[in-house]
Specification:
There is one protein chain. By secondary structure, the protein is α+β, with helices and mostly antiparallel strands. It folds into two domains: 9-65, no CATH class; 77-155, Glutaredoxin (3-Layer(aba) Sandwich). It is built from seven helices and four strands, in the order H-H-H-H-E-H-H-E-E-E-H. Strands 2-1-3-4 form a four-stranded mixed beta sheet, covered by helices on one side. It is elongated, with a radius of gyration of 19 Å. The chain binds FE2/S2 (inorganic) cluster. FE2/S2 (inorganic) cluster (FES) binds next to helix 5.
Length: 157
């Protein structure tokens, strides 16, 4: 569901770079479109169909297949909490609950101010730092309920 009208003007500019072959460049078109809007609203996907003749079902298939694409607005920062075994054993659940409490969201949700999107992920490969989470591209390890409080505050401004 989309609450307010979305400016579709940038879509024409994005697709115009791929006029020689829209179909083969669909992923690149969708990536640039998502960079522009922060996610892929339905009206924008319809506009891509209108301009390129690539069927909406094909676009939707690609968007739902690749996890890099999202159909819902995302927060400015992505928090990814590791749900792997090592992190689980070292108390990530407690840390996760603290983050959820601070942000008033649960897994997969975005805060009302669009500052954060919270996700849980499988082992992110730094088990020696367990429990671990990432904020955007930055790793934070040996987390405690106190340290996550400081991290969330740091990114809240
Ligand atoms: S289990 Fe969390 S980083 Fe490997």
């Amino acid at each position: 569901m989309e609450d307010k009208p979305i400016d579709l003007t940038p879509v024409a500019g994005i697709v115009s770079a791929y006029v020689h072959d829209y179909e083969s460049n669909l992923i690149a078109i969708l990536q640039q479109t998502q960079d522009e809007y922060g996610y892929l609203p339905k009206s924008v996907m319809k506009e891509i169909t209108k301009l390129t003749d690539v069927p909406l079902t094909r676009i939707f298939g690609v968007v739902t297949f690749y996890s890099q694409f999202t159909l819902t607005p995302r927060g400015k920062h992505a928090i990814k909490i590791c749900n792997g075994t090592a992190c689980h054993v070292r108390g990530v659940d407690e840390v996760k609950e603290k983050v959820k409490e601070h942000l008033s969201v649960t897994e997969g949700e975005t805060t009302a101010d669009f500052q954060f999107t919270l996700e849980t992920v499988a082992c992110i490969g730094t088990c020696f730092l367990a429990p671990v989470m990432m904020v955007d591209d930055r790793y934070f390890g040996k987390l405690t309920t106190d340290s996550v409080t400081d991290i969330v505050k740091e990114y809240s401004n």
